[in-house]
Amino acid sequence: MTQADRLSNSVLTQFTGTGNWYRHALNRAVLFTDGAKHVADAGGAYWLLDEIALAQRYEQAVAAQPFQCWKLAVNPDHTGNLVCEDGNGNAVYRKALDYTDFPAAGVTLWVTDNTILLPSEY
Question: What's this model's pTM, rounded to 2 decimal places?
């Protein structure tokens, strides 16, 4: 199974809860679930968890949102965009990525109650 296959929707939707909670190393107030850890492991994307966790501390517009929808979109030229929405489709944070080696076309993670999780784990 390739890295991209391990990040397919059919694999990610199998995460329907978590057995473990992981504390983020850079922002100890943030936890992440088994599904979010799988994304980081399979995609070599602990940087993505870092981006989300640090935005909770340093981006006022993000921290003000009790529910967040984070969307990573990867372009064929390995550039990308990371967007945080408020759950109603309104972007509160955007970051252009000059380069990413994330192996899939994108992924969506949610944040609620200081926890990063897959939508299927909610």
Answer: 0.96
